[in-house]
Write a structure and sequence with these properties.
Number of strands: 23
CATH architecture of the largest domain: 3-Layer(aba) Sandwich
Number of domains: 3
Strand content: 25-35%
Largest sheet: 8 strands, mixed
Shape: globular
Distance between the termini: 58 Å
Structural class: alpha/beta
CATH topology of the largest domain: Rossmann fold
Length: about 400
């Protein structure tokens, strides 16, 4: 017997069934059907093989009958937990399954649409890179040009908000572009992958021609929220309802039982715009978080290395220690655009209340409004790839381009 096999273990009068896991302790470890692992000392147990079971990804595409009465969607997989199971080589969750595997595992998807499915990357999202965003945007545009009526991007949850923001700025889309993922891997009974994927497919066939993130709205399997790609943040490490819209309500909600979509905010409609791809980003941008005693020399580090943009995640309304002033002034004098956001979750920057803020404005810092820091970072990357004029940079950073800014804070 080897890791990945389904086994039965008898210990006294109690029987356990599960999948044999790797171990470095000499004990026998199995994953139970409830998703938890249990270990046994070798003595006093009997172990029996139930089933030899492969654990690898599909090696070929699945042929599915085409239904003329259903729309055509594309699924682009980048990896993440929604495309993951336990790796029986290491015992850890790893990204190793394809978009076709997702369709095979969630047959309910085939009632919603026809699908083209491709793997763009097979990574956990902490390994996402700026150049990957650029390529992903190009691949999405290609799918739309080829007739896709909506695009689903499966993505790891840890950096999904960054990718959603990047796509929001790089693609003007005539069809829905929906990012989704899962907090828990497909082989766990508590996995959220099926509901999230089904709700994402429903949004991808809807009238919402924007970049959105669709994830669980609560810990129950009842509905998913539709979040704008520029206003969403992961707010919990592991909860199924980890994603929240910040400083604005969700765009809408999908009822998983009835499959109906309720829209509560204004949105761009399908076909309202032509496809425009601007998949370029200035990679020499940085995000710096202020904390008590933070060394302002970090700004000089980025200036010396030719960075063109810096987001400062300041305290409260958008403040930094006065020790940072000369360093910020030096950065701006070297044509580095400096944008201020707040490390507070809710609210907006306002550098006109205290002397510190007014001094920062005089130096030339750009207020980031109520933008999330990650959204501001990606937006600055995009803006700096569009223009080198510092006045135009400020104008664009303070303009509401893709719902990233709100007029009033909740």
């Amino acid at each position: 017997m080897q890791s990945g096999d389904r086994v039965k273990i008898e210990k006294g009068k109690i029987t356990y069934e599960g999948v044999l896991m790797p171990t470095t302790t000499g004990q026998v470890v199995i994953k139970l059907d409830n998703g938890y692992n249990i270990g046994f000392k070798n003595e006093g147990i009997s172990i029996f093989l139930i089933e030899k079971k492969g654990v690898g990804p599909s090696k070929k595409k699945i042929d599915r009958p085409y239904r003329k009465d259903l729309p055509q969607l594309s699924i682009l997989s980048t990896g993440g937990t929604i495309a993951s199971k336990v790796d029986y080589r290491t015992g850890a969750v790893t990204s190793q399954f394809t978009a076709d595997d997702i369709l095979f595992a969630i047959p309910e998807l085939e009632k919603i649409a026809n699908y083209n499915s491709e793997v763009v990357y097979s990574i956990l999202s902490e390994n996402m890179k700026i150049e990957y965003w650029i390529e992903l945007a190009r691949r999405i545009a290609k799918e739309i040009e080829n007739g896709a009526q909506g695009v689903i991007v499966t993505h790891g949850t840890d950096t999904m908000a960054y990718t959603a923001s990047a796509l929001s700025f790089m693609i003007e889309t005539p069809v829905p572009i929906v990012l989704t993922g899962s907090q828990r891997s497909a082989d766990r009974p508590s996995s959220d992958n099926a509901q999230n994927a089904v709700c994402a497919a429903l949004v991808a066939t809807s009238d919402i021609a924007e970049v959105t993130v669709v994830m669980h709205s609560s810990t129950s399997d009842d509905s998913c929220y539709i979040h704008r790609g520029t206003k969403v943040r992961k707010m919990h490490t592991s909860a199924r309802d980890a994603f929240k819209s910040i400083n604005s309500p969700p765009l809408g909600k999908v009822d998983y039982q009835t499959k109906k979509i309720e829209i509560s905010e204004k949105y761009r409609r399908r076909g309202e715009r032509n496809l425009i791809l601007k998949n370029h980003l200035e990679q020499k941008c940085a995000l710096i978080k202020i904390y008590p005693g933070a060394d302002p020399d970090i700004l000089d580090f980025y200036v010396e290395r030719g960075y063109r943009g810096i987001i400062i995640e300041g305290t409260g309304l958008g403040h930094v220690s006065t020790e940072w002033f000369d360093h910020i002034k030096n950065a701006i004098s070297n044509s580095v655009s400096v944008v201020m956001t707040s490390q507070c979750i809710y609210g907006r920057t306002c550098d006109r209340v205290y002397d510190t803020g007014r001094d920062l404005l005089r130096i030339g810092v750009i207020e980031g409004g109520d933008m999330l820091s990650e959204t501001a970072l990606v937006k600055l990357m995009w803006v700096l790839s569009e223009t080198e004029d510092t006045k135009e940079v400020k104008k664009l950073m303070q303009a509401n381009l893709v719902w990233e800014l709100t007029d009033r804070t909740l």
